[in-house]
Amino acid sequence: MFKKLSAEFLGTFWLVFGGCGSAVLAAAFPAVGIGLLGVSFAFGLTVLTMAYAVGGISGGHFNPAVSVGLTVAGKFPASNLIGYIIAQVLGAIVAAAVLYIIASGKADFQLGGFAANGYGEHSPGGYSLTAALVMEVVMTFFFLFIILGATHGRVPSGFAPIAIGLALTLIHLVSIPVTNTSVNPARSTGQALFVGDWALAQLWLFWLAPIVGAAIAGIVWKIVGEDDASLAHNSLKAELA
After folding, report:
1. Global pTM?
2. Given this model, what pLDDT does residue 154 score?
């Protein structure tokens, strides 16, 4: 279990450090900033690379909502859920701390939003609480649904991280203007702890909405995505466990 939790810690660290780091350090760099497109790809690439690196150890969740959704779908043991979530949140917090140390080394450093997630006046595009809630639920739903589909036995093995990484890229391309894109409570928590104030006050949404979206995806997958052979196999595993 130690190896699995360590893999989740490192994977989530890389996701937050690479994704949020691209937003904080590189997005608006004068003349050559990577912009919204670059940040979107950065998040996707973090998941893609670490899914290949440690996915075979822990499953490559790197996200409490993903772990919850996989549990609801019957793909992950509930007994491991709390440990995974703790490892993911710790990885995100440590990544945010390292990013803060680096970012604050700039002479004219100002914390600003620090890539935190928000709604209302703290939404990049000024979107409402309702818009943010719906966006996060829908985007996390499809993210988890894609994960379940890409890792299904009927799909050629070895390609799942590509589909999952590109899915996260697409999610960011659509939702950065609305919430700065969470779909990951750990990612939101790490940044909010350093911003404090409004980011902590709004953090509840970025736990609730992703978990709800992922849980719904887990339920829908059981109805739509599973075939009879998979259901029989899962039932047999449950009986033998």
Report:
1. 0.89
2. 81
